[in-house]
Amino acid sequence: MVGMLNLVSFALALACTLYGTAAAPTAGTFTQKSSFTIPKAPSGMFYDSVSGLLYILCGTSTNGDHYIYAYTTSGTQKCMITIPQASRMSRVDGFYIVSSDAYIVDSQGPIYASTKLGGSVYKVAWSNPCGCSSGGTCTATTASWSPTVTKTWTLDAQQSSINDGGGNDQYFRNSGIAVVGDHFYAVNGVHPNPTLTGSYPKSLVKVTMADSSIAQKWSFDASTIGHDVDMEGITCGSDSCANYIYVGDEYNYIYKLNLATSDPATAVEMQWDINSVVGNVNDDKGIESLTYAPSTGYFYAGIQDTSNIHVLELTGAGSSATVTTAPAEAATEAPTEAPTQAPPAPTGVEHIVTDSTGVKQWSAGAGAYASITAAVNDKITFNFNGGHDVFKMSDSSCGTTGNTELAKTDVGGGVAGTTGLTNKFTYTITAADVTAGSITFACSVPTGSYGHCNAGQKITVNTGPTASAAAAAAAATGTILLMMLMSLYCTVF
To answer: Quick one: three-class SS letters along the chain?
Structure first.
């Protein structure tokens, strides 16, 4: 018994040393409204309120041609802009428009300074090459654009006001941008050097455009918010960065960061884990770009590995705090007890939709699908080819009204090859689904007629309590107990 207590004490002491007592960000919930696939890997994204279009930058081909696609928020391509190699930008990773100016991020510009432009951010004259205007109409479907650079900023990871890289990565690999007044926000993405976790810390910085000074910084490593980070895309939300900025991470998290808080561990107030809709992607190829469209109220996350754009409604993404300017020297205050936060919601178990012949596919003609029993946070995964879609039905019939489209016939994310199952969609069971008692999914093909549904391509998910839910509750209880023990131990010792 004494030996066991000593072991527990050692484990708690180690946890205090490694992670401190900072609570993890609150786990947010989300709904995927839709998704669409673009021709190339998205590296930056910006919603233009003038035209109502998404400008999606594709620049992951280092020192090659780069591209900007203009898309409607519903996923229709309007124009493709080519930025030729002769423009001398190395690897463009972010895009932002302010009136007649545009800002282009170059994550590897400083690495190729001897042969290329060499900057981290370029301010260029925005000429609207496709002639896109209000309502999303464009006068051209393709255009070539050689931007005229009017100002360059070069960020240095080694400068004392940033001090990133841990001695393993000397470059600030800027991977995103949000322009707010006379400042812009930039983020230092991770590069395998020698590993994905070998070059911490990495920082989000606020840069004063007039003199390139760092006005504010938030530095992260693997312990800051309880897991590894690789922050890439950044965007303002509904408050236009008055209080919060949102950051997309290649581990497929989206963070809500309070700009009034200088401590990065507490600045990240919420995180949304969207791995359930992104699916399996290669390391360092998750969320690469992120933007918010006020016209829809949705966030748009671009995935490098799949070229998918996921349209997301993030619960809790609204603004409530007010940014205030800190005095030059803060008064000493008595320490206060940090508020207790619940651990992230359990991830649940995955249920892969399987037809009556035992094949893990969503298809028509294989007979009726057996119902599934699932609990809150469980995942329902559909693997299907381009001849099918996924709808959440208003009831268990195959009626054609009141249904919600979840995944189109070209949602992507699957595995090409002999199976042809190029599409993959994962639905997460919500508390509302559990309250409903059951939900039904079906295929609407032929489009809108629900012929496949009537042929048996529908599945009912019973959402009552399951053993998986009980296990998840037990795990959550254990996590809370461990957090209490850690807090007590670290306070006393």
So the answer is: CHHHHHHHHHHHHHHHHHHCCCCCCEECCEEEEEEEECCCCCCEEEEECCCCEEEEEECCCCCCCEEEEEEECCCCEEEEEEECHHHCCCCEEEEEEECCEEEEEECCCHHHCCCCCCCCEEEEECCCCCCCECCCECCCCEEECCCCEEEEECCECCCCCCCCCCCCCCECCEEEEEEECCEEEEEECCCCCCCCCCCCCEEEEEEECCCCCEEEEEEECCCCCCCCCCEEEEEECCCCCCCEEEEEECCCEEEEEECCCCCHHHHEEEEEECHHHHCCCCCCCCEEEEEEECCCCEEEEEECCCCEEEEEEECCCCCCCCCCCCCCCCCCCCCCCCCCCCCCCCCCCEEECCCCCCCCCCCCCCCCCCCEECCCCCEEEEEECCCCCEEECCCCCCCCCCCEEEECCCCCECCCCCCCCCEEEEEECCHHHHHHCEEEEECCCCCCCCHHHHCCCEEEEECCCCHHHHHHHHHHHHHHHHHHHHHHHHHHC
Q: State pLDDT tens for residues 366-415.
A: 778 999 999 988 889 999 998 999 999 999 999 998 888 888 888 887 77
Domain covering 350-466, topology: Immunoglobulin-like (2.60.40)
- Within the chain, which residue ranges are assigned CATH 2.60.40.420? 350-466
- Just give the CATH number of 25-314: 2.120.10
Question: Shortest CA distance to 238 belongs to which of 182, 168, 298, 301?
Answer: 298
The amino acid at 372: I
CA dihedral angle for residue 121, residue 127, residue 132, residue 133, rounded to 10 degrees: 100
Tell me where in the chain the CATH 2.120.10 domain(s) lie: 25-314
Question: Is-contact 460 433, C-beta < 8 A?
Answer: no
Flag the least confident range among 68-82, 223-237, 348-362: 348-362
